[in-house]
């Protein structure tokens, strides 16, 4: 029972954190009914769905904060926008390709970097984007065909759209670039 409570707390406060910082959905209780089956769940897809939903909500004008597993978002930004890393993070000297990819980056801890980071993000050009960021990581974590998934992902009672081709289309049809 204690192990279930701890795992529920850990999952609720990291992977599926919300804006309340102390509450979590009871929907996660079902996931830990049988601890032996937890390893078979698609936690990555669930976390990505939850993050998508929170990013969708954060893009609304009236929303002032974002929630979800922001470490995943931060690592994704550093991998795909290496120009940002020059001033806002550094590579970890202890990282090896066997480790989870998010451990590769050591962000600077300075609240004064928010406005310069936003400015740098606004000024990124298409040529500054790394389209194949995990090339050297592939031998340790092979590319799986499931990574090409396009469609709807269900997590609990919610469904989230996962259409990466729409994102590419928006980037490539940008009016400032041919």
Automatic annotation (TrEMBL):
Q: Please provide the record's keywords in A-Z order.
A: Signal
Q: Which GO terms describe its biological process?
A: meristem maintenance
Q: Which InterPro entries match?
A: AminoTfrase-like_pln_mobile, MAIN-like
| Residues of the signal peptide | 1-23
A Pfam family hit: PMD
- According to the entry, every stretch annotated as the Aminotransferase-like plant mobile domain falls at 3-170
Its protein name is: Protein MAINTENANCE OF MERISTEMS-like
């Amino acid at each position: 029972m204690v192990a279930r409570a701890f795992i529920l707390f850990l999952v609720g406060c990291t992977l599926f954190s919300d804006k309340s910082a102390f509450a979590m959905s009871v929907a996660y209780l079902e996931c830990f009914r049988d601890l032996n089956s937890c390893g078979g769940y698609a936690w990555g897809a669930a976390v990505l769905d939850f993050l998508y939903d929170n990013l969708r909500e954060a893009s609304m004008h009236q929303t002032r904060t974002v929630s979800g597993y922001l470490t995943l978002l931060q690592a994704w930004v550093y991998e795909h926008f290496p120009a940002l890393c020059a001033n806002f993070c550094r590579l970890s000297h202890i990282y090896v390709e066997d480790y989870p990819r998010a451990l590769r980056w050591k962000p600077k801890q300075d609240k004064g970097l928010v406005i310069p980071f936003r400015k740098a993000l606004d000024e990124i050009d298409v040529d500054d984007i790394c389209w194949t960021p995990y090339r050297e990581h592939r031998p340790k974590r092979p590319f799986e065909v499931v990574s090409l998934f396009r469609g709807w992902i269900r997590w609990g009672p919610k469904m989230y759209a996962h259409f990466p081709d729409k994102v590419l289309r928006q980037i490539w049809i940008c009016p400032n670039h041919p």
